[in-house]
Amino acid sequence: MKLLVSCIPYDGGRSGISVYVREVVSALVAGGHELTLVCEPGVDVPVRADCRAGRVAAVVHAPRWTRRAVISMAWHLFILPFWIMRHRREFDGFFICAANRRVSAWYPLPTVATVHDLANFHIPGKYSRSRMFYLAHILPFFAKRAQRLVAVSGATKSDMVRYWRCRGDSVTVLYNGLPEPAPRPGAHGRALLYISRIEHPGKNHLRLIEAYGRLPRALAEAHPLIIAGADWKDARAVHAAAAASNHADLIRFTGFVAEADMQRLWDEAGYYVFPSLFEGFGLSLVEAMARGLPSACSANGSLGEIAADVAITFDPYDTASIESALAKLLGESAADSAARAARGIAHAKKFSWRDHAAGVARLVREMEAS
After folding, report:
1. 57-90: per-residue pLDDT in tens?
2. Backbone CA torsion sign across 251, 117, 134, 162
3. So what's the pLDDT on residue 213?
4. Count of C-beta atoms within a 10 Å radius of residue 48
5. Tens-place pLDDT, residues 24-46
6. Rounded to whole angstroms, what are the CA distances from 158 to 89, 136, 175?
7. How far apart are CA 141 and CA 137, in angstroms?
8. DSSP assignments along 133-145, one per residue
9. How far does the chain reach from its first CA to its final CA, in angstroms?
C-alpha cells in the first residue's frame, strides 16, 4: 500500500513517541509498504537499514514557521488536510503516529490514528493550562473523527472510552513492540537502572530516589542507581533530591544516551525499575524483560498490564511501597531472580513491531474494502 504517515512530533528523537515513530515506520517499510513521511521542518526520521521490502518514497516537511508547538498543532489541524486533499489520489491511507499530540480537523483519506496515552487526565499540572485545555477538549473532538483509532494498551483504550467517550468497538488495541533485532539476554552488572526523561512529577523520580535512600547501605552499595534520560520539566528538583539522598554517592545521572550507546547501560544493569505515575505503554519495561533483567514497576495504568505476573509491582504514590518492592527485587535469591528473568524473557516475546505495523495496515485495508 501507499501510505501517508504523519511523524509529527518527533521530539528530537528523545522520547517514547520518537521510538514509536522510528520503529513503526521501519516495520511498515519492512512489510512492503511505500511511505511518504510528513515531518517537522529540518527533521528526517531514520529507518532501519535492514528494511528493504518497501521504501520511503518521499519526505514532506512542514513549513519552517511551524517550529513552535502551538503553530505546529494548528498547521496539522487545519492546513495539512488541504494538502492531503490535493494529493489524496496518490495514497491508499493516512496514518497518524501520535494522535494524542497531533490530529486533523477532517480526514480526506482513510485514516488510522494511534493514541499513546491520556496522561493529562491522570497527572494534574503536567502541562500548561492552555495545553491541558487543548488536550482535554479540542484534540479529542477532532481525533474521534478519524475512521480508525488505535490504542497501544488496554489501559489507554479504557481511558479513551472513559475520558474521550469513544465507543469501545471503535478502538483497536495494538501493543507496541521490541526493537529490531530483538534484544537478547546477556551478561549483566549489578546496577538498578531507570530510563526516562527527567520530568517532575510525572516520571516519579523523587519517590524513587527517596525509596532508594531508605534501603540498607550494604544493599544500595551492591546495586547503585543509574538514572538515564535528558532533563525535561522541573529536572532541577530531581537532581536536588538525589544530591540530598542518604545514598547520593551511589546515584548516577547519565543525561540523554544515544541509541548507539545504550548497550553499555544495559550491560551495567542487573535490575530495572519503572516508577512512573502514568504510562500509555512502557517501552523500556518490555525491553528490560527481554534482556533478562528482573524488574519492578508501578501497578497503575498500562505498566501493571504490561508487567502481568512477571515484574514486582508497587503503588507509585507510596514511597514505602516502592522501598518494599526494591528490597524484594534486589534481595531475591539467585534462583528466584533467575526464574523471574526467565519469565520476563518469555513474556516479552508477545510484543512485536511487525505485528503492530501489520495491524495498522489491516485497518487501512478494511476501510478500502468497505
Report:
1. 999 999 999 999 999 999 999 999 999 999 999 9
2. negative
3. 98
4. 17
5. 999 999 999 999 999 999 999 98
6. 35, 16, 14
7. 7
8. HIIIIIHHHHHTT
9. 16
Query: Is 191-348 in CATH node 3.40.50.2000?
Result: yes
The position carrying cell 500548561 is 128
296-314 average pLDDT score: 93
Q: Please, are residues 282 and 297 in contact by the beta-carbon 8 Å criterion?
A: yes
Please state the pTM of the whole predicted model: 0.90
Q: 94 φ, ψ to 5°?
A: -125, 135
Would you kindly state where each structural domain of the chain is located, as residue ranges? 2-177+352-369, 191-348
Nearest Cα residue to 328 out of 192, 206, 226, 207: 192
d(CA 222, CA 236): 27
- Buried (b) or exposed (e) across 120-159, using 16+ Cβ within 10 A? bbbbeebeeeeeeebbeeebbebbbebbbbbbbbebbbbb
Torsion sign, CA atoms 331, 332, 337, 343: negative
Helix, strand or coil for residue 264?
Answer: helix
Burial class (CB in 10 A: 0-12, 13-18, 19+), 115: buried
In angstroms, what CA-CA distances link 113 with 8, 10, 156, 287, 315? 12, 15, 13, 24, 31
Task: In whole angstroms, give the CA distance from residue 131 to residue 32.
Answer: 38
User: Amino acid identity of 249?
Assistant: D
CA–CA dist 346, 117 (Å, integer): 26
Strands 93-96 and 2-6: parallel
CATH 3.30.230.10 assigned to domain 2-177+352-369? The reply is: no
- In 3-state terms, what secondary structure has residue 320? helix
- The owner of cell 495514497 is 91
| Order of strands across the sheet that contains 111-115 | 55-61, 34-39, 2-6, 93-96, 111-115, 148-151, 171-173
Q: Can you tell me the distance from the alpha carbon of 93 to that of 148, in angstroms, rounded to the nearest whole number? A: 11
Query: Would you place residue 258 in the very low, low, confident or very high pLDDT band (cuts 50, 70, 90)?
Result: confident
The Cα–Cα gap between 283 and 130 comes to: 29
